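**User:**
If convenient, please work through this fold.
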Amino acid sequence: MNNYNLFFGIEIHAELSTKTKAFSSAKVGIEDKPNTNISEFDIAYPGSRPTVNKKMVEYAYRLGKSLDMEIADTIMFDRKNYFYPDLAAGYQITQFYKPIGKNGKFEINVDGNTKEVRITQIQMEQDTAKQIIKGDKRLFDFNRAGVPLIEIISGHEDLKSIDEVIEYLKSMREQVIILNISDGNMHEGSFRIDINVSISKDDNAGGRVEIKNLNSFSNIRTALTKEIEEQIKTLEQGQEVDFVTKRFDEDSQNNIVMRGKDTSTTYNFIPEGNINPILLTDELKAEFNKFEVLKINDIKTNLLKGVADDSKSIILKDKQIFGIFQALLPKFDNVKAANIIVNIIEPVFNNKNKFEIKSILKVIDLLDCKKITKSETKDILVSLFSGKDVKTVIDNVQHKQMMSKENIKVIVKRIIASDVKTQEIIENNPDRASKFIVGQVMKETRGQASPVDITSVIEEVIN
């Protein structure tokens, strides 16, 4: 590989976390019963017409601002014409002639060095139906048809190694998560990647191969390594690399040719006649600008400075987890806040129900003041994340702290004085005695005494 220049052009398709689809009022619910979240437009019923999802436009605008892009003053859509069973209308509504964002930049950090990647454009479009193969049958679930996507397109000039590609993709995934516009779930297809690969001994890219629908970072590394090796072998034999589209086969761990490379002529792009141009007025921009412009590289180098890379990944994998981390910072330094997230909150985190961050902070404060144990903290957080009444959970926690150390001391002394076996254990194995007495006190007080306070009192009494 050392004798060749590598060129990688990347197209990311990020499904947006809107409640309804891009051009219909149908609910976004991909995992629901197949073909239940559909409208007449999603299945191309004759006479049905599209209506633009305002939230999709806002989310695309949000990403464009975070990538320092030139934002179009007028939103326009086009038709990408091709025939495939997962596309009922025979065309996809996308943006070709005038995308919402152009000429952006995105910073990544590789081996301690900051690198700027140029973003050619971002565009809004609709997703296709999901294809399911069962034996000799091909099934289609149109729940996914029409789900809003943002396509993020980078140029071929900046990413020069597989490591840089991986870092770019990881960081961009974190970017859309932090902006709260996509869940970035690669396994479920919310963050899908197509990569164009070409190599050359000079500064001009050679024959380009597109590898489609890559859905994990390990698969991406394997697919790119295999493709580069194959292109080098082809060139060393004096042959030219064909312009083709491939897919990565997980079973064989190889790239398999699907078809010849498609071009814009093949797709016959035309303006979408059923959607009028949408003017981005000053009032609409002011509404969209209410969000906080967060840049993932700034977060990593400043807010998460000193935090281990593995911990950074955990904190940035979910917008709500990141929000909890931010809320912890006024009281804890960023390293301690990160440890709380990684060791206490993330293992029991559940974002399927509503919860208030201030309630979580209250529980963490009880832990920090040694009012409750780490185990109790996790149990309480499970209750909060499962949607149980916040006030009831917190009141129960605080109720446990009503017993004073003096009252605990009375109980501990009585247990020791009334049980010869306990006295023998104390003499022979104080650590074992402490655990035994904690259990006895918890049983007698029905959990209304802090294990931390009990342990402290036992040490005092025994000593």
Notes: The domain at 405-462 is CATH 1.10.10 (Arc Repressor Mutant, subunit A). The chain has a mean pLDDT of 88.
